[in-house]
Amino acid sequence: MYRPFSLGCAAFFILAHPRPTQASSPQRIPTPFAYTWNVGANRSLYVVGSHTDVGAWDPASAVQLYWTAGNVWTGAIGIQAGTTLEYKFIARTNSAARACDPANVEWMPGANLTNQIPPEPPAPYTGKTLYYHSGFTNASVIYRIGTNWLDAPLTTVGLGRNTNEFLYRVSGIGAAGEDFEFIPHGWYGGVEYFDHAPYGGYGSSNYFTSLDFCFLQDGNIYNYPPPPAASPSLIATTNVASSFGGIPGRNISIYLPRGYTQNTWKRYPVLYMHDGQNLYPPGGGFGYWDVGATANKEISQGRMRETIIVGIDNNANRFAEYCPPGDNVQGTPGIGDQYANFVIHNVRPTIDAHFRTLNNPANTIVMGSSLGGLISAYFGWETNTFGAVGVMSPSFWTAPNFVSRIDAGAKRNLRIYMDVGTDEGTSAWGPTWNVYALFQADGYVENADLRMVVGCGQQHNEAAWASRLP
């Protein structure tokens, strides 16, 4: 079915259709780095280099290593397979005020160092494949490789969903494993139109995904043939009773992604989020994350899997519930183990019983901010239920005993996202980086199963977490 398209100008595009000679790889190879340098007090050593995985020569985006005895800084970083890497070690001041300053840098002397990252086996196909439902005639797709824009014709492979629509296809464009930025265009009623994405953020609202197989329909990207008219996302609410003393039952919200109604064959990963009152507008008095809008956008553009999101409300006992046992918040002892029992043994079975879930650890994620970030880290580290954690602006400063258990423990089968804003204060900044170093020492690899993000100029609030949520 035809939908409105915005007019655009393609005069600056280079129109060609080359075939890439070798597919790229999305795999990140754990690559060890070590360098001996006494960088002085309140400074740390970083790696920066020619690939975006080590900051693309931007000191503010470099990857921090961790200190060991003898002033040996070490750590492993995931680098894209097949990369010919040039890099250097740099020293930077640790303060939050200078974290995002590219001038905060002292370069190691001498020439650039090099490392050839081993390649992965080539993909069994070349480039990207795009299917497209459209009422256009003579349709093509403009796509980007590096700084060049190329144009490839789309081939009609069948009828669309009605007599006014076609199913188009093209294969072998772009590079497998790399980001794919594109804009379909064609003719309708004697006028040329450009089908821009319904959300901005890339070029002039271009589509932008890393998928190697894309099915574009009604402004949405899928990694499977979609139903003719996918149902919109929706949010349901219910109350879950508690079987654990001291942990009251509470309301939860359940976000169901697009197409959930029709795709009865499909099961979904589940993201559990704390502070459920702050996820959707109007929020709980401190603003809101706008989780539904962000999920809709990222899913629709093929940057996020279709996911069930469960928001778990907090209550007056938030300090105790969100604090690990053995620690306390302002004199309130932590009962995070009992709260974990409620989530794992009451909330999760309720979701699994009523919705089509993928409930193995790899597809079970937990996320929160502040104390919610702290308890998310606890859920991942101390239970075997969650395979990934979102640890946003965590309150590690309140939990020295839990941090000691991280220090003494061995690496878990866990993927960890961490972040912190530069304007959150010293109580958040230093402890977050200290725990990041502990994870590195345990063997976690940046860009592989560990990710650290800095929110430049961002404070400890819902607006900052909403901006980093994508």
Q: Which SSEs are present, and which pair or pack?
A:
Elements: E1 28-36, E2 43-49, E3 63-64, E4 66-68, E5 72-80, E6 84-93, E7 106-107, E8 113-116, E9 128-134, E10 137-145, E11 148-153, E12 155-159, E13 166-173, E14 180-188, E15 191-194, E16 207-209, E17 213-217, E18 220-222, E19 234-240, E20 250-256, E21 270-273, H1 291-300, E22 308-312, H2 318-321, E23 328-329, E24 332-333, H3 336-354, E25 364-369, H4 371-382, E26 388-392, H5 400-408, E27 415-421, H6 426-442, E28 450-455, H7 462-468
General description of the model:
By secondary structure, this protein is an alpha+beta fold. Helices cover about 15% and strands about 35% of the residues. A hairpin with a 3-residue loop joins strand 4 and strand 5. The radius of gyration is 24 Å and the shape is globular.
Q: Give the proportion of residues in helices.
A: 10-25%
Mean pLDDT: 93
| Number of helical stretches of at least 4 residues | 7
Rg value: 24 Å
Quick rundown:
This protein has 470 residues and is an alpha+beta fold.
